[in-house]
């Protein structure tokens, strides 16, 4: 961990992995980390809103753009020391599966997942971004609120930002009942 004068370390007290997680398919790829102490909010550390069924219906439609952030690999194939972001459009499940099938990389996009990215590639989440957020603005809110609709889960085994090889995200709203068991 890179420490600065503004960095406050937190330690994990407990890890809750979703009981039906399937590592072979990356299905139900979600876990909750319980920290040993509360996080102090400031201008750089803010909470995120959990999705609702309505926000997911509004946001996870083909073409709607969300923001994914992380410290993963960049175009130089090194891990970033600064937080990176990419604005990516949601891709229909069928188009996502077809893109991988055309690359001889068949995969299944389950009902617990969605895909995002550009047909031509370029911008993408990458190695080291897994577990990071994909957020959307809540258009039904008067104030600008951000909603956590996705968690970076998987991508192409051939690398990041390849044409028609979209990124895979866990759909957070599918797990709200489980999340509320802990928080």
From TrEMBL:
> Per UniProt, which keywords does this protein have?
Disulfide bond, Endoplasmic reticulum, Glycoprotein, Golgi apparatus, Hemostasis, Hydrolase, Protease, Secreted, Serine protease
Q: Which reaction does it catalyse?
A: Degradation of blood coagulation factors Va and VIIIa
Q: Which SUPFAM superfamilies match?
A: Trypsin-like serine proteases
Q: Which InterPro entries match?
A: Peptidase_S1_PA (IPR009003), Peptidase_S1_PA_chymotrypsin (IPR043504), Peptidase_S1A (IPR001314), Serine_Proteases_S1 (IPR050127), Trypsin_dom (IPR001254), TRYPSIN_SER (IPR033116)
One of the record's GO molecular function terms: serine-type endopeptidase activity
Compartments it resides in: Endoplasmic reticulum; Golgi apparatus; Secreted
- A Pfam family in this protein? Trypsin
Primary location class: endoplasmic reticulum
Q: What is its EC number?
A: 3.4.21.69
Q: Which CDD domains match?
A: Tryp_SPc (cd00190)
Listed GO biological process terms: hemostasis; proteolysis
| Assigned GO CC terms | endoplasmic reticulum; extracellular space; Golgi apparatus
- Residues annotated as domain Peptidase S1: 12-183
Q: Which PANTHER family match?
A: PEPTIDASE S1 DOMAIN-CONTAINING PROTEIN (PTHR24264:SF54), TRYPSIN-RELATED (PTHR24264)
Q: What does this protein do?
A: Protein C is a vitamin K-dependent serine protease that regulates blood coagulation by inactivating factors Va and VIIIa in the presence of calcium ions and phospholipids. Exerts a protective effect on the endothelial cell barrier function.
Q: What is this protein called?
A: Vitamin K-dependent protein C
């Amino acid at each position: 961990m890179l420490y600065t004068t503004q960095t406050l370390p937190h330690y994990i007290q407990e890890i809750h992995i979703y009981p039906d997680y399937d590592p072979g398919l990356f299905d139900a790829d979600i876990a909750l980390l319980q920290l040993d102490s509360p996080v102090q909010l400031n201008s750089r550390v803010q909470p995120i809103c959990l999705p609702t069924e309505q926000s997911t219906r509004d946001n996870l439609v083909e073409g709607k753009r969300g923001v994914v952030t992380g410290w993963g690999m960049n175009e130089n194939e090194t891990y970033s020391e600064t937080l990176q972001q990419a604005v990516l459009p949601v891709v229909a499940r069928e188009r996502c599966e077809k893109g991988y099938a055309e690359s001889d990389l068949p995969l299944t996009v389950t009902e617990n997942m969605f895909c995002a990215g550009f047909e031509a590639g370029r911008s993408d989440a990458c190695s080291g971004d897994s577990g990071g957020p994909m957020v959307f603005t809540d258009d039904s809110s008067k104030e600008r609120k951000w909603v956590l609709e996705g968690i970076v889960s998987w991508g192409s085994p051939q690398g990041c930002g390849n044409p028609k090889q979209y990124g895979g995200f866990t759909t957070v709203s599918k797990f709200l009942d489980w999340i509320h068991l802990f928080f």
